[in-house]
TrEMBL record, chain A:
UniProt keyword terms in alphabetical order: GTP-binding, Nucleotide-binding
Gene source species: Oreochromis niloticus
Name under which the protein is recorded: RAB17, member RAS onco family
Homology family: Belongs to the small GTPase superfamily. Rab family.
GO molecular function terms listed in the Swiss-Prot or TrEMBL record: GTP binding; GTPase activity
InterPro entries: P-loop_NTPase, Rab_GTPases_membrane_traffic, Small_GTP-bd, Small_GTPase
From TrEMBL, chain B:
Protein name: Vacuolar fusion protein MON1 homolog
GO terms (BP aspect): protein targeting to vacuole; vesicle-mediated transport
GO CC term (a single one): Mon1-Ccz1 complex
Protein source organism: Oreochromis niloticus (Nile tilapia)
Biased composition (Basic and acidic residues): 116-132
InterPro entries on file: FUZ/MON1/HPS1_longin_1, FUZ/MON1/HPS1_longin_2, FUZ/MON1/HPS1_longin_3, Mon1
UniProt region (Disordered), positions on chain: 112-135
Domain FUZ/MON1/HPS1 first Longin: 143-265
Biological role: Plays an important role in membrane trafficking through the secretory apparatus.
Family stated for the protein in its record: Belongs to the MON1/SAND family.
Length: 227, 542
């Protein structure tokens, strides 16, 4: 009984602290690019719910969120999982425009998807503002190493030539997925978070308040246009 | 209000996938030469014999080889064709085609002929794409659907792969275009137990091959749906643009990953009475609850929001629309098909361009698609004109959820989704097994659960095809009927159409004609009593 008192007190303390100086929650726009079927949606589902299930191909684009806590900030990842099908190519720039993080995903068992990832990189570079986007090359389906068509070294060397970060993951087993998200969080906070206006602050909108909502939308469009 | 509507149109145009300037130039151009919908055919060549195809193969072949004498030997089985028309058609073939095409054509047609000869009754249910197109199983499917470009390039096949069928499709196109060259339209070819129906919708050609006793009109209606499905993915503007610039473009590149939508639509056409009736069905729900749901949806509006649609599986809960904007039942069925076919909307919020071809074939809307709760059947679709509207739509959904979850109506809604719809026993007509009732003014229909006798997929499809037969009789192009009564060994059927409704009833085979007709009034009375639960009586606008 007696023990619980200070804890309650401590909790209240923290709460009033929060009221005075809200915890920094920064919005990070992350886009997943790559051929259809490489596992973008599966990675996105791992990121947001740490689950794996097979779904039908993405229609258009899917939006998911996940919050990552760092020691000095909280990042709210707004994840845009694109479809990767050719018919959507003309709308895809909508999603990578202003993205803080781009994951170029390929399937290590399909060489062609590795080639496509490089085409996506070219696309990105057209819009690229140095220092504004952190780009990761992600070789997925690492669990299928026996069917591997793209050697680990090849991914690594492409990444180092182009100045990208690199990792191999398995959305199926979950291997390296959390590691990926954690290192993305650290990198993006280091590289972009420090810049003036690099990341915008996220404001929760607990109740329906139109004035509040409007300001939220302003942020949304500001984030979309990019830093 | 007017200004608002105009703005909506403007931003909707800029919301298309193609850059605006390119779109404009496409629109200014006339559609590509060839048959355009509405072109008056010079002569109607509606009923060819199936062997006509094989004759054509020989014709194509011999024309290519320059052995003119041979053509006429094989050209005798035309039914509705005068000798003069024959000669004309053949002349066209002679002058128009290249030799390789004829060779390829022959091979394919020989294959087609085999299909006809060797058809078996062993209907396999496998719908795998990898199916061997020369196999027994492939040949014996009840219904094939092919889509090709006007250059004869394969775009879609229901069974097997497009590659394996490219020569067959080339021949289909050859058939279409040589008839077309004389300002005629090839509509269908009939042969023993097999029917081939053509639908030319520039720049696409759709071909249905059926072993069922469907009427041409019903088959055309189904091909039309497939056409709209493809337009819905790409817009007609984009389709025209592509084929204007590259006649032999391989459209499968753009449709890759979406074939399953067409596959599923074809299954729906066999199972969903709504597609037959040109109507959708509602989730039965107390009108007080439905009104709360509708008004919550109405309150969650946004400048560019045009339609808010709440679905419970394949049933409509409510639909709120912008004033003066209407959603066609075909467009709504395409939305149903998209949502019902894709499990991907279960994760997060979906945001996709979608063309609603009955609304406008030229541009895309942008749909925000999400489920109300993770494992729920309730799916909300918010259709906006602006492709940058994602966060606005996401907010609309949030607002809707906040409002709705405070009300007891939400609980009632969730209960209604869990319950089976209703059983025919509730109507209190002992011999009545099942019925479809469509209210013409609202475009909504209602029907009870399938009873025990029609539990299996095959039995349901069989009942649906019986309804389809009745539908064809009522809507016969030249001799439409108001009533139709039919006795069969397995069931008796009655159909009636008035200016206000369409009704299809299925009775046990023991019912008498008199009691079947008497049942109509009793059923109509019951529906009137229940209508505020079964239908949406007060549709809302923003
Ligand atoms: N073995 C294996 N299969 C995976 C992995 N990630 C995704 N898949 C499967 O690959 C297919 C395509 O995945 P999906 O996430 O839809 O790919 P997307 O089109 O890039 O979004 C599905 O059948 C997934 O189950 C993985 O890491 N390992
Ligand atoms: Mg996907």
């Amino acid at each position: 009984m007696g023990e619980s008192l200070p804890r309650v007190h401590g909790g209240a303390q923290q709460h009033s602290d929060t009221l005075r100086r809200p915890v920094h929650t920064l919005r990070v726009k992350m886009v997943l690019l790559g051929s259809s079927g490489v596992g973008k949606s599966s990675l996105a589902l791992r990121f947001s719910k740490d689950e794996f299930r097979s779904t039908s191909p993405t229609v258009g684009c899917a939006y998911l969120t996940q919050v990552v806590h760092l020691s000095n900030a909280t990042l709210r990842f707004e994840i845009w999982d694109t479809a990767g099908q050719e018919k959507y190519h003309s709308v895809t720039p909508l999603y990578y425009r202003g993205a803080h993080v781009a994951l170029l995903v390929y399937d290590i068992t399909q060489r062609e998807t590795f080639v496509r990832a490089q085409v996506w990189l070219k696309e990105l570079e057209k819009q690229y503002i140095p220092g504004s986007t952190v780009i990761w090359l992600v070789g997925n389906k690492g669990d299928l190493a026996h069917d591997r068509q793209v050697p680990l070294e090849e991914g690594e060397s492409l990444a180092s030539n182009k100045g990208l970060y690199f990792i191999e993951t398995s959305a199926l087993s979950g291997e390296q997925v959390n590691e990926l998200l954690q290192s993305v969080a650290h990198r993006v906070f280091e590289c972009i978070g420090a810049q003036q206006g690099g990341l915008t602050e996220w404001q929760e909108t607990p109740t329906v308040d139109l004035r509040h909502k409007d300001s939220f939308n302003l942020f949304a469009s500001c984030c979309k246009v990019g830093p | 209000m007017e200004g608002e509507a105009q703005k909506a149109t403007a931003s909707w145009e800029s919301g298309t996938l193609a850059p605006v300037d390119r779109l404009r130039s496409v629109r200014a151009d006339s559609p590509i030469p060839g048959l355009v919908e509405g072109t008056e055919p010079g002569r109607s060549l509606s009923h060819y014999q199936w062997d006509y195809i094989t004759d054509c193969a020989l014709i194509l072949k011999t024309a290519g080889a320059g052995q003119k004498s041979a053509m006429f030997i094989h050209a005798h089985s035309f039914e509705d064709l005068t000798a003069e028309a024959e000669e004309e058609a053949l002349r066209t073939v002679d002058s128009g085609r290249s030799e390789e095409q004829h060779e390829e054509g022959l091979k394919a047609l020989v294959a087609e002929q085999n299909i006809d000869e060797q058809h078996s009754n062993d209907l396999s249910d496998s719908r795998t794409k990898e199916e061997d197109v020369s196999s027994e199983a492939w040949r014996s499917h009840k219904k094939h659907v092919f889509v090709l470009s006007e250059a004869g390039k394969p775009i879609y096949t229901r069974y097997g792969t497009e590659e394996a069928l490219s020569s067959t499709m080339g021949v289909m196109m050859a058939l279409v275009s040589f008839v077309e060259a004389e300002k005629n339209i090839i509509r269908s070819i009939h042969a023993d137990g097999c029917k081939v129906v053509f639908l030319t919708k520039s720049p696409l050609v759709l071909v249905g091959v059926s072993r069922t006793c469907q009427s041409d009109k019903e088959m055309l209606r189904e091909l039309q749906y497939i056409y709209y499905q493809i337009v819905s993915l790409l817009t007609l503007t984009q389709l025209n643009h592509i084929f204007q610039h590259k006649q032999n473009y391989d459209l499968r590149r753009l449709l890759a990953g979406s074939e399953y939508l067409t596959d599923n639509l074809l299954i729906r056409l066999e199972r969903d009475p709504g597609l037959l009736l040109s109507a959708v069905t509602c989730l039965p729900l107390a009108s007080s609850s439905r009104d709360v749901v509708s008004s919550s949806l109405q309150a969650a509006k946004s400048k560019n929001l045009v339609f808010s649609i709440l679905l419970a599986g394949d049933r409509l809960v409510t639909l709120v629309r912008k004033k003066d904007q209407f959603l066609h039942h075909i467009d709504l069925h395409l939305v149903f098909n998209l949502v019902g076919s894709s499990s991907s909307f279960r994760e997060g919020e979906g945001w996709t361009p979608i063309c609603l071809p009955k609304f406008n074939t030229a541009g895309f809307f942008h749909a925000h698609i999400s489920y109300l709760e993770p494992a729920s059947q309730l799916c909300l679709i918010l259709v906006s004109t602006d492709r940058e509207d994602f966060f606005n739509m996401s907010d609309c959904k949030q607002k809707f959820m906040e409002r709705l979850s405070k009300r007891s109506a939400y609980q009632a809604l969730k209960e209604a989704v869990k319950c089976p719809s209703y059983s025919v026993a509730q109507v209190g007509i002992p011999e009545l097994r099942h019925f479809l009732y469509k209210s013409k003014s609202s475009g909504l229909y209602t029907s009870p659960e399938f009873p025990m006798v029609y539990q299996s997929d095959e039995e349901q499809e069989r009942l649906l095809s019986l309804y389809q037969e009745l539908h064809s009789c009522l809507h016969h192009p030249t001799r439409p009927l108001r009533y139709y009564y039919r006795c069969r060994e397995t069931e008796n059927l009655l159909a009636q159409v008035t200016s206000g409704f369409e009704l299809y009833l299925c009775f046990s085979p023991l019912v008498t004609k008199a009691s079947a007709f008497a049942a109509v009034n009793k059923l109509l009375k019951w529906i009137r009593k229940e209508e505020d639960r079964l239908f949406i009586l007060s549709p809302l606008t923003y």
